[in-house]
Amino acid sequence: MAHLLHIDSSIQGDASISRKLTAHAARRWTQAHPGGTVTYRDLAAEPVPHFDAVSGLARNIPADQHTPAQAESFALSRRLVDEITAADTVLLGLPLYNYGAPSIVKSWVDHIIAAGLSFDPATGAGLLGDTEFIVLESQGGGYGAGTPREGWDHAGNWLVHGVSPTGLSPRIITAELTMAPVNPAMAELIPLHEKSLAAALAEIDSLWADATA
Fold first, then answer.
1. Which of 40, 59, 104, 137 could form a disulfide with 94 if both were Cys (CB 3.0 to 4.6 A apart)?
2. 94 backbone dihedrals φ, ψ, rounded to 5°
């Protein structure tokens, strides 16, 4: 039976574009996989703890040397990796905050990079490469070629490299200029935002077309 892991990270609730995109994608996935099951994780509502001096080295120390805090932290890494390995598809909503990924997404990535769980410590080979990884990114502005802030998106590009030790290979679908409808200074960019959003939804709709054919 097919299984989906649906992850959101936006702090904006119903106003979030990335949440709208992941919700749309999850609906399309379930339509394409009748009887499929879904696990949902909301990183904004239940943040994965950031690494600290108390437990952050848990993934670098043999389990038999763990302190209680390190053992708890490593157990969380195991649960997060298990959620991925149980899934055929992972959906991640990725809003762009201050030109980068939300810190709660960075913490999730830090936790899933663990020797013996997501990569082979002897060979360095990633162990999660069989999982489809769809990342739905929302950008308040525009950062494409020829724009004044070309290259200022440090979320999507970072994520590709950040998860690479695990074997995950993100397919990133982006809706840009999402602030245009709510920022009067960007009102003239609303048509471009609407075009970008429509293109993102169309790309999502094409993802599992073969499964419904």
1. 137
2. -130, 90
